[in-house]
Amino acid sequence: xxxxxxxxxxxxxxxxxxxxxxxxxxxxxxxxxxxxxxxxxxxxxxxxxxxxxxxxxxxxxxxxxxxxxxxxxxxxxxxxxxxxxxxxxxxxxxxxxxxxxxxxxxx
Length: 107
What we know:
The protein is mainly beta. It has a single domain, classed as HesB-like domain (Hypothetical Protein Aq_1857, Chain: A). The longest helix is centred in the first third of the chain and has 12 residues. The model has no long low-confidence stretch (mean pLDDT about 90).
């Protein structure tokens, strides 16, 4: 379904651990927008919602809503950290095209 690399899972768990909010996992969604039509949304969350798919990766709960799940089927989320930039990277085999920043895509 969806894969998080070890680096991505560690980064998410680190954020959750040091947050002031009682987050329990991540919510990964696809929303309309961005320069290519769809964009990724990744947010910490306390609970999933009815109908969500729950995936556990490296002890991290990842919630996917029913609309987003087919659009991220087979996707890998990685985390890059360089001197000038850090953040999640999305490698989606369903994307026909992606924008330059890698945060939005077309199917």
